[in-house]
Automatic annotation (TrEMBL):
Species for this entry: Methylocapsa palsarum
Signal peptide: none
Annotated protein name in UniProt: SOUL heme-binding protein
Pfam families noted in UniProt: SOUL
Length: 208
């Protein structure tokens, strides 16, 4: 009986530790320039990402992509150097879309780009080269996004619903789409659902 209680305490402690882990990890810098209900317009600072692309169902591609990029930051690189973990991990469909029309979601068979943002003190020149040729380092300038933040489990239906809300908002404001929806996951998988931070964002045109 007591070992069951002890195991429960350990599991609960691990679940509550998830939000602390994500808060301690470096996160991309941004400025909120507008807010309407649960939607924020954010201007993000330039960043470098490590990116890998996998085909197939979203959850499977996310797991494969996470492992590949995690291997890179844990030392599978030219100098066997560890790179600090950041939050969030992001995932985006890599299909080409029309930039003048609402973004649409697609079913199985798409390719998914999974990205970790690199710590801000690195440059492309100072980051170690990935040993895995599938892992690419990319640099982005400052960008503007419409973003919805939510807690709970990031199931397909929930992600698509929030993406649709963002698309409707962007259309209603006569803004221009610049990307497919991007899904962001901030917490370890053992985090209790109500303590999780997830986001859906879409890049839009705007002044930086």
């Amino acid at each position: 009986m007591w070992w069951l209680i002890g195991a429960g305490v350990v599991l609960l402690s691990a679940a509550l530790w998830g939000p602390i882990v994500s808060r301690r990890a470096e996160q991309p810098k941004y400025k909120v320039v507008a807010k309407e209900r649960d939607i924020e317009i954010r201007d993000y600072a330039p960043m470098i990402v490590a990116e890998v692309e996998f085909p197939g169902e979203r959850n499977v591609a996310l797991g494969q992509g996470f492992r590949a990029v995690a291997d890179y930051i844990f030392g599978d690189n030219s100098s066997s150097q560890k790179v600090a973990m950041t939050a969030p991990v992001t995932q985006q469909e890599s299909e080409t879309i029309a930039m003048t029309a609402p973004v649409t979601q697609h079913g199985d068979g798409d390719n998914w780009r999974v990205r970790f943002v690199m710590p801000s003190h690195y440059t492309l020149a100072s980051l170690p080269t990935p040993n895995n040729p599938a892992v690419k380092l990319k640099e982005f300038g400052g960008r503007r996004f419409a973003v919805i933040r939510f807690s709970g489990l990031a199931r397909d239906a929930v992600l698509k619903r929030h993406a649709k809300d963002l698309q409707d908002f962007i259309v209603s404001k006569n803004l221009k789409f610049l990307s497919a929806p991007i899904y962001a996951y901030y917490n370890p998988p053992w985090t209790l659902p109500f303590l999780r931070r997830n986001e859906v964002s879409i890049e839009i045109a705007g002044e930086q």
